[in-house]
Amino acid sequence: MSLQTSTPVLEVESLKKHFVMTGSFGKLGGVKGVVKAVNNVSFTIHQNETYGLVGESGCGKSTLSRTLLKLISSTDGKVKYANKDILQLKGSELRHVRRDVQMVFQDPYTSLNPRQRVGQILEEPLLIHSIGTKKERMEIMSDMLEKVGMQADHFYRYPHELSGGQRQRVGLARALVVNPKILILDEPVSALDVSIQSQIINLLEELQAEFNLSYLFIAHDMGVVRHISDRIGVMYLGNLVEEGPTERIFQHPLHPYTKALLSAVPVANPDYKRERIMLKGEIPSPFDLPSGCVFHTRCPFAEEQCKTEVPQRTENAADHFVSCHLYH
Amino acid sequence: MEIAQNSGRVIDVQRQLLKNQRSLLVRRLLGNKQIVFGSVILTMFVLFALIGPMIAPYGPYEMSVSDRLQPPSADHWFGTDNFGRDIFYRVAIGARVSLGVGLSVAVLSSIIGLVVGLYASYYRTLDHILMRICDGLMSIPAILLAIAFMAALGPNTINIVIALTIVFSPYIARVVRSSALVVREQTYIEAMKAQGARSWRIILKHIAPNTISPLFVQASFIFADAIITEAGLSFLGAGVPAPDPSWGNILADGKLVIYNAWWMIVFPGAALILSVLSINLLGDGLRDLLDPHVGNSKKIKRKKAKVKAG
Amino acid sequence: GCSSSSTTDSTDDENSPSDGTDEEQVSGGELRAAIGQQPETLDPHMSTGATVKYVTRHIFEGLLAADSSFQPQPMLAESWEISDDGTIYTFHLREGVEFHNGKEMTAEDVTASMNRWLEQSSVATQIMGEDAYFQEEDDYTVTLHLEEARLTAIDAIASPKQFAGIMPKEVIEAADSTGITDYVGTGPFKFVEWRQDQYIHFEKFEQYQPVDFPADGLAGEKVAIVDDLFFDIVTDSSTQLAGIQTGQYDIAYTLPNDNYEQLLDDPAINTMTDLYGNSFHHFNKKEGIFTDFKMRQAVNAAVSNEEIMLGGWSHPDLYSLNSSYMGESQVWYSEAGADEYDQADPDKAAQLLEEAGYNGEEVVILTNNDSELYNTSVILHEQLSQLGMNVKLDVYDRATYSERRTNSANWDLLAVGLSTVTTPSQHLSLSASWYGWTEDETVHQMLAEIEAVSTLEEGTAIWDDLQAYLWTEYLPGTKHGDYYYYIAARDNVEGVTILEGPILWNTSVNK
Amino acid sequence: MKNYLLYLTKRVLSLIPVLFVVSVIVFLIIHMTPGDPAIVMLGEDATAEQVEELRQQLGLDLPLHEQYLNWVLGALQVDLGSSYFMREPVTEAIMNHLGPTISLTILSQMIALLIAIPIGIFAARRRGTMADQSVMGVSLLGMSVPNFILGLLTMLMFGVILRWLPVAGYAPLSAGLWEHMKYLILPAVSLGTLQAALITRITRSSMLEVLNNNYIKSARAKGVKERQIIYFHAFRNAFLPILTVIGQTFGGLIAGAVITETIFNIPGIGQLTINSIERRDYPIIQGVIFFVAIAYVGINLFVDLLYGFINPRVRLEKN
Amino acid sequence: MKKQSLLDVQELKTNFYTERGVVTAVDGISFSVEEGEIVGVVGESGCGKSVTSQSILRLFDEKYSVEYEGSILFKGESLLEKTLAEMQDIRGNEISMIFQDPSSSLNPVYTIGRQVAEAILLHKDITRKEAYQKAVKLLELTGIPSPEKRALEYPHQLSGGMLQRVMIAMALACEPKLLIADEPTTALDVTIQAQILDLIVRLNQEIGMGVMFITHDLGVVAQVCNRVIVMYLGQVVEEADVRTLFTEPLHPYTKGLLHSIPKLDGERAEKLHVIEGTVPSLTNVPTGCRFADRCPQADATCLEHAPALEAQNDGHKVRCWHASAQKEVETYVATN
Ligand SMILES: Nc1ncnc2c1ncn2[C@@H]1O[C@H](COP(=O)(O)OP(=O)(O)OP(=O)(O)O)[C@@H](O)[C@H]1O
Ligand SMILES: Nc1ncnc2c1ncn2[C@@H]1O[C@H](COP(=O)(O)OP(=O)(O)OP(=O)(O)O)[C@@H](O)[C@H]1O
Ligand SMILES: [Mg+2]
Ligand SMILES: [Mg+2]
Hints:
CATH class of the largest domain in chain B: Mainly Alpha
CATH superfamily of the largest domain in chain B: MetI-like
Largest sheet of chain E: 8 strands, mixed
Bound molecules: adenosine-5'-triphosphate, magnesium ion
Structural class of chain E: alpha/beta
Largest sheet of chain B: none
Strand content of chain B: under 5%
Strand order of the largest sheet of chain E: 6-7-8-3-9-10-12-11
Number of domains of chain B: 2
Number of strands of chain B: 0
Oligomer: heteropentamer
Structural class of chain B: mainly alpha
Distance between the termini of chain B: 14 Å
Distance between the termini of chain E: 38 Å
Helix content of chain B: over 70%
Largest interface: C-D, 42 and 50 residues
Number of helices of chain B: 12
CATH topology of the largest domain in chain B: MetI-like fold
């Protein structure tokens, strides 16, 4: 699929989220530091597309997804959906957008209310958006439960009575009952083992085909990302350092971090041996981002220029962008 | 289990499941020893309060001063007090007042505390204001505050309930708030926001139920504490006004004759202790019942049994 | 020291805890007395409170003192005369009496003290009139000037309640609105320390000069036998009980009535009783249904006092059924109107209620949570309820009770315990300003007549009439009876006598 | 360190609104309360004029807000006024009555802790056994017996019948440690029982929770001895909620002291308060409650600071 | 038994006494770990991997909730017959363990330096100070930068990766003969994971330490392990050396697992393989083969009779009625 032919549904423009860590007395006590969790990130998700987002743990992926839905306030930037900037919306307009843009949270163990049964959990979004009569809601829910591959007797279970994979599917079902257009999936499978993981990935693919959904898919398992994504973005310390079509990223990674990441992925083949790119040096504290390129402290190819100048985002090949001085 | 083919059947299945679910709840209730014990004792008290007076041969106020301070006998099962009134009857009637005070204070302060605690946990500014008021109220020892309120409001049972409710609500509010603050940060609350839920819905439907178990524990403490504090108030002369009996003021009367009429202390004291015990049991039991993780046991056992049978 | 073992053997053997035994009294040691309440002040002029009276009598003395039959006897005044018209009293002071601070007592101290007392004591004002004053004649003579003759002026000066203690002029001058701050008197004990809410400590006053006639009531020779006298403030009566049983206290003043019998049976403990006062329920005669005399009669006809008194005081030793407004041992004792007392006649009461047109109006009994007042009210409540009256019991703590009773809108029947008084005009049931508001002209006119006559006989005669009038035609309240309080002393305490409170001089403790 | 000081200042400053609230509550309640100190002071037979005169002298005739303002202005200069009855400044009265209460609360807290913590740990280690259930049953009993009954019963038992200890009274520490203690043991036991019951329950449940933690297992896996695990690894973690309860129930202790001090005739803050309420000694009541509130908040502040020492995770994080 | 294994587990059963009855979380498991060998343990979540590892150290509460059956021989000595005091000498000293979740496995109230030093002090006769210095060295060895500073910090001040390394340092403190590593890298991203794996392999080679390595990442297994055990619902269903397992898996479950791994190369578009059905609950264990419900090859025998773990050839064991028949027909190639 080429980007020119499909329509963008969600456009993120230079989004920033800085957490201000204050001392005592709130702001009066002085600012202890600023965590630049998301720093000037821009990307676009198109209709029916899966955008994979990878990166080191703590690089700001979850923060990014929460900011998109205004679950936490943003510092700067725009998130355009249906000609509106989500970040500026309030009240019922925001609620409407939230119906269209649904989210599946990273942790299946904490994102379900432990005191609600599966049925109540699924009914909640319908009630919020006043959809259907009691009977209709029942049908919608049963339908959805079936679709995510669960059984009717799960309806009265509590979340803790479900396995991790089943919980993840409940989370997915909850996001899907209101017929969203976009689904943000924050590491939906990283807590699971491979057999459950594959069930979920398959389901996502089926649903996408059926409902024309767009996904923002966050993960750190490169195998999974490769499998499901159309395009991939690589984040490092709050910055999007590389972006491109899946095959392209895997075959021709440009950014040294992407290369290191790919080289470290363990392969399920005892005979497979390859050269790993070792990342040396300390991971910088998010309080105190390095000057210049944020990666220069660990980059095997870092030069003087990297320490002082922030690299610009350049298009290296069709739709393949990278922010690195090596490719200027 | 087969996946239902059409939604009509699904609904049938669900009806069935709902039914199972209900019988399960009953089973869980009956299987919970604490709840069974607690409610049996409590029911006995209620019956005692309702029926006791009918079977007692004397009225609660009926006095025959010449028969004062008689030990328990066939005539006066619990003996007589310093006015020659029948203690059995007074303890029975006192149950109405004491349990009434205990329960109303526990319920009222739970409601107030819950609302205050929840909203305080959700809105920052409100939190500051409400919590400072709670701190203020809590930093004044309960009994002093109660005495002061009683002195200001005047002695009658409703005022006791009001005074004790004011005194105890902050304790509930604190507990609710502290657990609500934790719940508020949970991902599932964020998930509800992401669904577009309004604040009141999040607060009442999602945060509140998760603060229920500490609330229950605290409320059963308060039930006990309210009865005891009422007794303490009576002891200090600020409790339920005479001649209405409450366990507290029977004890307070008895306190004067503790060295020569043990029955004036023992019977109301035992009633007090038993009721406190039963409420604590009920509180613990209810907490377990509402905890989705506990009590689930019965379900699994049942399933196993069914498999074996089938 | 000047104490001797031969001083007293109480003449008042009815009340003596140690009758029969003739052991040698040991001097020295300490005596610990548990009192139920901290006195509001140690200034006897300032308060009518019983505890104030119990404590201060040991350090202050008046010009005169009451003997065991309440007759005035000389104390700091050696003798006194009354002018023929009865308006001028001349007091001759004893010479060489020393205050605890070493200064000799002279007329200037006496006039200062007595004038302040006249100012502070409402009873004094009432009996002597607004314009009475004392005047210094010479160092050892003072005079009292009255507007007109008053029969009971001398009794008032000798009254043990809110008594006219003599203190140095400087002390009086240094006093503020709450009373004196230097507790300097002439009594057998002198003040050492007052630990708030803990104890008051007196010690023997070595320079004390007793009068030289035998001790009788508050009068006569006084000797401090013990070196130290402690009044331990023990508010809880059960605690006092436990303390006297274990010997932690030598004497306990405030014990539960219910334990009287138990203490009677305790060989290690002696008990003594003394008349304390009259138990009444006052009618609110200012407003409400009891402005109707018939209603008052109805209640009075209904009450059964045996029950009320037994319920209030628990033991027959601790109360007596007595219709007289004045005490049995007093000259004012009278049986006039006794028929109206303690009728316990519900039928008559019902009839009277009907005549009065009583229609279920609410009757509020105001009482406080002191066990006696409370108990009498609970029983009255029951008795009136039996009668079909709509009665409500309002129980408050003492302070609230004291405030509420001032407002006539708050109550219909007021539980009161009135401590004994020495003259009828001091009787609070008859006061127009006190709670219940006896604003009856006949009553006040007759009281004035009593004061105006010159002999006691004339006075008692008028009083007989007045009491008959009170019972049959007025009923300021319904009297339940006289009540006694009891104290308990360990058996090693000897020589305690009692007159409006225990007397702890001439008392020894053998430890 | 600088942060710590800041934190401290912040916590101390946060007391101001609390104390404001307390002062208003106290002032309002007291003045809403019927009963007139002037009447109480003057005794039964005082006339209305005398009462009125005294009220003026005491400043009770002023409008309420003026009285409040005067009081607050005084309080700001650590002048809480003077007692109507006791001829001493309120601060002095409080100081004079403080000793017994401090001794009593410390002793009863110590008794409570000495009994409760080992028993709680014991019950936690034997959870589900008869021993556990009976310990918990007894602790529930301990919580449901009213304080005054317990006081009277201990007094009857150990004072009157066995005569081991004096029934009532107080001797200051200056009279010797034993002399001091012997008056306090009975009241401290009766006061500490409820406390002990509560702490036992908390100790048990928080120990149970901690013992379920992975780090206990990992300590075992390291080869740490069981005893050391209980006291070194588990208890320190379990102590936090216990400490919270200790801090919170401090108010309860003072409230309990009101009754206990009355029964055992201990001239402490509790008795002072009750007597002052009975006498309507406004300045004392205000002063005492205000003082107790400060103490309560102060103790909880101290507890909060202690948290940090016991559990580094809590350090400075609470804001 | 040819030669004495470092660890030899025979027919181990771990029964939990819960309020809903006895739960046999580990049901007759047998395997061994030799000196200098890394044995991987894989299996679906909840299949009993952690319970097995903790049973070896007898970490469950034997007084109230757990009962062990079978035998655990460590260097020929039966661990199950030792007293708990004797166990304390072995724990942390000869056998040590890295727990699944490092952030909850460190005591929050003590500095990490102190906790590592404690592990040394317990078993070595040295002074507190020496122990502490050794702890710092160990931290350095695990690649924690500026270890002197870090040693003074509390667990909450460290990142997940660092905590994981602290756990490792603690486990290695007394140079154990046997290391049990329970999913030591799940919480980490691949770059840090790689560093930790390197460290374990290095120590394994340098001091000849035996390792029991539990994980669900088959990629990791392929890279570090010599031999692999596959578990399913409390039992070992297959055991083989790593190459054999990846090239010739015999058990249908193992095959299913291997099939499910998304590939890093090759065709993306195809659907991921899925093992149908769900794992039965432990309280409701099937009478026949435990995998029968989900197995494409299951027949009547499978549903009724439980197969035993049988050796096929050269140390390759499998628990399946169809294993031997199948091996001849089909050869599975792990990577394609
Ligand atoms: N509420 C917050 N306040 C302060 N800092 C925060 C907050 N939430 C996240 N951060 C910081 O922002 C950074 C990015 O966190 P985020 O959770 O987005 O990472 P992530 O990429 O999702 O990591 P993972 O893969 O572990 O989920 C981290 O350094 C984190 O500490
Ligand atoms: N203390 C216990 N009491 C009862 N059952 C338990 C207990 N501990 C574990 N189990 C059960 O034993 C089974 C095996 O658990 P275990 O922790 O060994 O799984 P695992 O293979 O390590 O899974 P994961 O990959 O998720 O760590 C699970 O079903 C679990 O519920
Ligand atoms: Mg994340
Ligand atoms: Mg595990």
